[in-house]
Write a structure and sequence with these properties.
The chain has ten helices and ten strands. It is of the alpha/beta class. The protein folds into two domains: about 130 residues, 2-Layer Sandwich (Nucleotidyltransferase, domain 5), CATH 3.30.420.40; about 170 residues, Nucleotidyltransferase, domain 5 (2-Layer Sandwich). It has a five-stranded mixed beta sheet, with helices on both faces. Strands 8-7-6-9-10 form a five-stranded mixed beta sheet. A hairpin with a 2-residue loop joins strand 7 and strand 8. The longest helix has 30 residues.
């Protein structure tokens, strides 16, 4: 079964070919235009998807040594994400499936991240725990079996990736914020500034990162530090980044480890853009060595939004005969059921 996957939920136009669960190609075109605005501009994102979608799909097919006639089905993200961006990939996928008389499957973007750790050679075993951390989502999910999962907790305000982006903008480091703060933080002291850790209620698996983001803002004001005016020397900038990053990672690791112990799982996965963070990987890696569980994280290519994870979940669904109708609409606020 050969499935074409299309992902256009935000600012990456991506398409991939998966054959019998194996990735044959994965093409990602990132939209650099958003960097000068410090974040994604929805209208610019949808226009860029319209310009890029045909050539990205054609390149994915070419790299995957597949013709349109070889396809068994097509999968495309239908939510969550930016409405205009979602519509480009969703409508393209439905139209192509209709023209080729093959099944179509609408895919939940979060579900794509959930199964992205199956794209590598080593795969987790059920049941496993997944920490999904990205610009729009932070959640802990207990995956009991294929498509049988339970959300343990999720963000109540800013997602971890969103907090990274906003703090990066405050510090004049630009967009995307995750790699910038990770890079600067590696040169700093994570104990230099004690930013708050929000653990919420004692038994809660929910997350909240709005407070630490605001704490960074107040710190800059209190110390009269204006990055735009050049008031931040490199050493202090590195310490701020390292301290902020430590506050976020401490919460992510603590809640993940508590869930790991309470559920007694042997496999733990991290996924989403923030799963590329070097400090998060290091800390969970240390916990895995001490705790004796297996830690999985995607290669960097599959941490970001990508068509391969959408194609893979499409393959899982279509091989079970689970497809979608041509009347499927984009759902910007779609949740993980």
């Amino acid at each position: 079964m050969v499935v074409l996957g299309i992902e256009t939920s935000c600012d990456e136009t991506s398409a991939a070919v998966v054959a019998d669960g194996v990735v044959k190609s994965n093409v990602i075109s990132s939209q650099l235009v958003h960097r000068k605005y410090g974040g994604v501009v929805p209208e610019l994102a949808s226009r860029a998807h319209q310009r890029l979608i045909i050539q990205v799909v054609e390149e994915a097919l070419a790299r995957g040594a597949a013709q349109k006639e070889d396809l068994s089905g097509i999968a495309a993200t239908y939510g969550p994400g930016l409405a205009g961006a979602l519509l480009v990939g969703l409508n393209f996928g439905k139209a192509l499936a209709y023209a080729l008389h093959i099944p179509f499957a609408g895919i939940n973007h979060i579900e794509g991240h959930l199964y992205s750790n199956f794209l590598g050679e080593e795969k987790p075993s059920y049941p496993f725990l997944s920490l999904i951390v990205s610009g729009g989502h932070t959640m802990l999910v207990h995956v009991e079996s294929e498509f049988q999962h339970r959300v343990l907790g999720q963000t109540r305000d800013d997602a971890a990736g969103e907090a990274f982006d906003k703090v990066s903008k405050m510090l004049g480091l630009g967009y995307p914020g995750g790699p910038a703060i990770d890079g600067q933080g590696s040169q700093g002291d994570p104990r230099a500034i004690r930013f708050p850790r929000s653990f919420l209620e004692e038994d809660s698996y929910d997350f909240s990162f709005s407070g630490v983001k605001t704490a960074v803002l107040y710190y800059l004001r209190e110390k009269k530090l204006d990055p735009k005016a050049g008031a931040l020397d490199p050493a202090r900038l590195a310490d701020i980044c390292a301290s902020f990053q430590a506050s976020v990672v401490d919460v992510l690791v603590a809640k993940t480890m508590r869930a790991t112990r309470e559920l007694n799982v042997r496999d733990v996965c991290i996924a989403g853009g923030v799963s590329a963070n070097s400090e998060l990987r290091r800390r969970l890696g240390d916990e895995a060595r001490v705790g004796g569980f297996r830690l999985f994280h995607p290669t960097l290519e599959y941490c970001m939004d990508n068509g391969a994870m959408i194609a893979y979940v499409g393959w899982l669904r279509l091989r079970r005969g689970i497809g979608s109708g041509m009347d499927l609409a984009a759902v910007p606020n779609l949740e993980l059921a």
